[in-house]
TrEMBL record:
Stated name of the protein: Acetoacetate decarboxylase
GO terms assigned for molecular function: lyase activity
Top-rank lineage group of the source organism: Bacteria
Entries under Pfam families matching the protein: ADC
NCBIfam families tied to this protein: PRK02265.1
InterPro entries: Acetoacetate_decarboxylase, ADC_dom_sf
């Protein structure tokens, strides 16, 4: 490969056989089971990165089935999302943790957007004919179980579509340098596009989380379940944008550093004169 070819074709690893294609990615019949619960405010403040701030003390625990996703295939994921305010005062979602069972979206989600994804075994299914059941196993250990009465109350499809389409979503993306330091450290914002909701329901719900050293979902403990919803939708995961670069020098610091360098040059020139 010559230099021009490398620059032209480089996209993802492995270079000659990337783990995923280029975005965007389209999802058909994507199925959400989301349980919202109250947790400890101090625990939320400890994990939400500035300049975002927690909107309340709620965590949205998700189990998601993706049976038909372009480029990623058929897989399931589970994780925790927090309601936040961004610097512009908009209500958004910050994704704190994600666990899934497919190499492509793990690699692509991490490398492109910065999704906090790890390999595990989530399941979303109907149990005992009348219960929506979500489970998450890490290794041999069950770390999350969520249940909801199956389609007890119909929700408004347009309201759910707006929640998905109009809400900014945030991620903390970290990519290391070859020396182990941070090469990229960014707050990434993305939106879901072309959203169609096929159905949405609520019902009585419960959730149980178990401590685990490598999958610490229980570090945001359940104090009280406040609601749950089940949504089936088609949507596109759009490309992201950098909302904040943590490694960029603030303008004032950069100007001060430049002034210091210039002062040093002036002093050196004076010595030589």
């Amino acid at each position: 490969m010559d230099l021009a070819q490398i620059r032209r074709e480089a996209f993802a690893m492995p270079v000659h056989n990337p783990a995923y294609p280029r975005p965007p990615f389209r999802f058909v019949n994507r199925e959400y089971f989301i349980i919202s619960y109250e947790t400890d405010s101090d625990a939320l403040r400890a994990i939400v990165p500035e300049p975002l701030t927690p909107e309340n003390n709620l965590v949205h625990y998700e189990f998601i089935r993706m049976p038909d996703s372009s480029g990623f295939g058929d897989y399931t994921e589970s994780g925790q999302v927090v309601s936040v305010r961004d610097p512009q005062g908009r209500l958004g979602n910050y994704t704190h943790s994600m666990y899934l069972d497919d190499e492509g979206p793990i690699a692509g989600g991490r490398e492109i957007w910065g999704f906090p994804k790890k390999l595990a075994r989530p399941v979303l299914a109907v149990d005992g004919n009348d219960t929506l059941l979500g489970t998450l196993d890490y290794g041999t250990q069950r770390i999350a179980t969520g249940t909801m009465g199956y389609k007890h109350h119909v929700l408004n499809n347009e309201d759910e579509r707006r929640k998905l389409a109009d809400t900014p979503n945030y991620l903390l993306k970290v990519i290391p340098h070859v020396d182990g330091s941070a090469r990229i450290c960014e707050l990434v914002r993305f939106y879901l596009r072309d959203v169609t909701v096929h159905g949405a329901w609520s019902g009585p719900a419960a959730i149980e989380l178990h401590p685990h050293a490598l999958a610490p979902v229980a570090d945001l403990p359940v104090r009280r379940v406040v609601g749950a919803r089940h949504v089936i939708a088609d949507l596109t995961l759009d490309i992201g944008e950098v909302a904040y670069d943590y490694l960029a020098e603030p303008a004032g610091h950069a100007n001060a550093a430049a002034s210091t360098r210039q002062t040093g040059l002036d002093e050196r020139e004076a010595e030589l004169a």
